[in-house]
């Protein structure tokens, strides 16, 4: 059986597929890139066993685990004034023309001048990000993208600057819950960084089946319990000691003071 991995543009599964090839050479891999609109569709129609997705997606009937976040960047023409900035706030982009659906970047949409005053013009035909970058390079407008996508489609005539005030995007691993297999659990363990010996024991299915190893008592707890038992036994074996009634040696209790006698 082959494990088929779909992955969103900008996501690099190489480090995980290499570990899989070393750990599970008996199960071959197939890897292919998905379009944004089909990240979860490839799971539902059987084209992929697991999918590395950029959230949000329709999570119905899916198991989804978050992996990491991506920072947003603004991409602009090389000669744009933003080129000298190390970072910008979304408020500084309010007067720019966004070459995306405003709903894709709600933080910009809510403060954008062209949206509020009704001067926003229609977008040219741009089937993909390569065409968006072409428009950006020509100075038509800007785009706000996850860092990995900006890097994937980078050009010498375009700059990218981190944007503050825009939510980061999340990369996650998804699969059909009803079709969870040991191979999927093994891959989940790999992307989570678990070692070969711990992958099965820590898997969700293993915990549900009750086959997770019982937690061993800590050595320090055992030592403390043993020491307490020894002290208790010693206390019971020790004879009770009589209460002392004498004062310090050399003196008798209530002895008269010879200086008070008169001859």
Automatic annotation (TrEMBL):
GO molecular function, one term: DNA binding
LysR substrate-binding domain ranges (all copies): 18-193
Entry-linked InterPro entries: LysR_subst-bd
Gene3D superfamilies to which the protein is assigned, alphabetical: Periplasmic binding protein-like II
CDD domains named in the record: PBP2_LTTR_aromatics_like
Keywords: DNA-binding, Transcription, Transcription regulation
Bias (Low complexity): 226-257
GO cellular component: a single term: protein-DNA complex
Region (Disordered): 195-263
Listed Basic and acidic residues bias regions: 209-224
Pfam family, one: LysR_substrate
Keyword S-adenosyl-L-methionine included in the entry's annotation: no
Superkingdom as given in the UniProt entry: Bacteria
Entry similarity comment: Belongs to the LysR transcriptional regulatory family.
Record-given protein name: LysR substrate binding domain-containing protein
Species assigned in the record: Cryobacterium psychrotolerans
């Amino acid at each position: 059986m082959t494990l088929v991995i779909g992955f969103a543009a900008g996501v690099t599964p190489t480090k995980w597929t290499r570990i899989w090839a070393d750990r599970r050479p008996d199960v071959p891999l197939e890897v292919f890139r998905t379009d944004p609109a089909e990240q979860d569709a490839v799971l539902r129609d059987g084209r992929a066993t697991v999918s590395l997705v950029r959230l949000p997606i329709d999570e119905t009937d899916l198991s989804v685990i978050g992996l990491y976040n991506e920072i947003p960047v603004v991409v602009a023409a090389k000669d744009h004034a933003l080129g000298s900035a190390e970072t910008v706030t979304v408020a500084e982009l309010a007067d720019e023309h966004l070459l995306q659906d405003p709903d894709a970047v709600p933080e910009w949409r809510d403060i954008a001048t062209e949206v509020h005053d009704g001067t926003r013009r229609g977008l040219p035909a741009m089937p993909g990000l390569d065409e968006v970058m072409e428009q950006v390079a020509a100075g038509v407008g800007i785009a706000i993208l996850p860092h990995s996508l900006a890097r994937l489609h980078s050009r010498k005539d375009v700059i990218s600057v981190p944007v503050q005030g825009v939510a980061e995007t999340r990369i996650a691993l998804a699969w059909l819950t009803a079709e969870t297999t040991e191979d999927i659990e093994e891959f989940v363990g790999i992307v989570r960084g678990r070692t070969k010996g711990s992958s099965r024991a820590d898997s969700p299915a293993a915990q549900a089946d009750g086959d997770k190893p019982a937690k061993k008592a800590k050595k320090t707890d055992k030592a403390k319990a043993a020491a307490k038992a020894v002290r208790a036994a010693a206390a019971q074996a020790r004879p009770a000691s009589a209460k002392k009634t004498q004062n310090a040696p050399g003196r008798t209790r209530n002895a008269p003071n010879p200086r008070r006698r008169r001859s």
